[in-house]
Amino acid sequence: MSVAGATVLVVGAGYEGKRRAYAKVAKQGARAVVVEEPGHWSGSLVAEGLAADWLAVPVCGDPDQDAHAVLAAVDGAGIRPDGVLTFWEDSICAAARVAQALGLPGNPPDAVDSARSKVRMRELSARLGLPTPRAVRVQSLDELFAGAAQVGFPAVVKPEFGASAMGCVKVASLEELPGVYSLVRSVVTPETDGIFRAGNDLLVEEYLDGVEFDVDLLMQDGRCVFSSVSQNWPTAEPSFQELGLHCPPDHDRRAVQRLVDLCVETADRFGLRRGVLHIEGKCTSRGPRVIEVNARLGGGRIHEIVEAVWAVDLVAAQLRSCLDLPLELKPSRRPRCAVLDVMVYAPRTGRLASIPFVDRELPDHVTVDLEVELGQEVAGPEAIFATHLAEVTVTGKDLRRARAATERFLAEPPEVDST
Asked: How far is residue 298 from each of residues 18, 89, 399, measured CA to CA in Å?
């Protein structure tokens, strides 16, 4: 078998920014069959030449039911896929079940489930003897008080399922718990984001100090054959909304390597032995700690950042992995460039009046992904979870030049009118 002409079942297409990944899949010559909810934007991928077929299935958030629906749709269409993949967090558990049911390569559903649930991830890490913060599942305010007493302060309240730090808040005292609980509960609903269809339990866990990193791993037969590390910038606590990152990192190399080693050990002991993984962790005052494990490709432009810096195409690697083909890797021995990825948020609450850098002609080394429209009501940092306006990615010869170019490009902040 080769990639060219292979039929690959894509379970869950995700947000429109994922179109870049499907363009790469198409460029490799694979025939993508996308399975998604009725009315989803990804229905246009066939007309765009980025997918061979598109099937509508109901999605409820339960991975067993969703996998059953996918299998029924594929069987009804007479499609026999050669591989199964997903780049979408909401669909990784269903995709693992589909691959297993079809006898195709993939990580075991139980391993994927343990990574997907932040509660199960902490529980399994503790059972395996991996260094992990204290954490307690909570379903009510009373349980939050009890859990916080076990965990101690400062602590973090977060949803069991979630992404992009939605509903994640630092809490410093018992007095703050009622307000934080109410705030998080207002966010962790399926109406806010479909990711919460999987469940709305919370956990309270020990706060970790230190510098945070994204560690992207490529696993083959239980062995890490490539890793890339991006260094996250400090967040505007008590929110953990990402402000930006840079790749390659400029933190202490030994500390970063210890974190990478822990991420690889965690993946292996969880049973995540193949494909692309995106693991978030910190270099803390007590050593490396894993924050969360994602059994899929990192979101946003992370795969483009990794390719720019290290000449490794993670999309192509995941495609080959799901087809059980040997990986073709020739990573650069040294960083080919440096990339900064910046999240721009509303500076205050009101109506978005302008985003100055949007009206400019973009230089070749800058990309901008807009998340909102002018005139839209936006929330500022005083609301804890500010409105994400744009993602700006800047490439430079090295970190110093990339930082300087970013400062110039973002010199004028967005304008928000009072309402």
From this structure: 11, 9, 21
